[in-house]
Structures are given as structure tokens and as C-alpha cells.
């Protein structure tokens, strides 16, 4: 038991180190993007042409320069905020994955992860399995819904059609995870056991859970 705890502790430390490296990488990426924005803005100002400055103008009347196409301080602040939001979301998912990776008993509670939109499923509504045991015995339809919620499955033809209607303004709202059970049942009938096992394993990897189905145990 002590060896297993030591192994789990080492894995947690490695994952925490990975989170720190990811955070540093995103921070550096954000800084590089800002530097590129500032550099581009300076170049645009230095190389303005007739699109920005009327013909015959000189440096003395440069105040007539049209800067509507340039990035403003407000734009840069918004960019920083968006990058920070992405960083926070990635860090939160990483921490929750680390937590789930330590779950080894069927009775252990799982920690839900946010999806790409920042939505966190509530285990009380039945979408997210409450414990590791519940996840291992997850029914196909619930597994499919969970994979859809985390966008781990390609949209069906019907979902693509609904999304196009949403873009055209024909429907007011659209969520792939709200696909009717009847449609999901039809999709499941077209999937083999191996394909369902692959879906299960993809969801497990996304959540940081160590259990696998089938022969793929990576």
C-alpha cells in the first residue's frame, strides 16, 4: 500500500509540474502576442500611406492620421483578459484531472471538469458520474452524452443541420449536449463495441481517470 501511495504522490507531483510548465508557456505566449501587437502598431504608424494620410500631407499635420484600424490600449487589455481566462481554464482543468487521477476505489468521488465553454456538469442531474464506480458502469447513452458535452465526438448530420439553422437565426439557441435520447439511440446502434470502448477511453483521458475499457489501456 505504501508503494502505491508513493507512486500516486509521484504522479501528482509530475502533473503539478506539468501544470506549472503549461502556465508559464501560456504566459510567454501572451507576452509574445502583445509584443507582436505593439510592434505591428508601430510599423503601421511608421508606414502609413494614402489609406491613412491624405496626399500631400507631411509630418506637421500628422494629426489627421486615421487610427481606426490600429489596436488600442483597450484592445490589448481585452486580449490580456482573454488569454488570462484561457490560462485559468486550462489550469483548473489540469488541477481537476490531477485530482481524478488519484481515484482508485469504486466509492471515490470524481471531480467534474469544465467543457470548452466553461460549463461544469452537475453530478446531481445525472450527466456526470458521481463516483469512479459509476463511471466504470456508465450506460452507453450517458457515456455518449458526456462525450458530446466535452465535444469529444464529431457532430452528427442532424446536429450540423441544427447548427446551420442557429447560425441563420432560425432557432434561438443550440446545444449539442441537448440532443434527444431517440437520436442518440440511433447513433449508438451504428457504433461497434470497439468504437464505444474508444469513446469511453477518450472521456476517461479527458477527465484524468485511469480506468480503461477494451485492449487500449494507454
TrEMBL record:
A Pfam family per the record: DUF3294
Region (Disordered): 94-120
UniProt name for this protein: Mrp8p
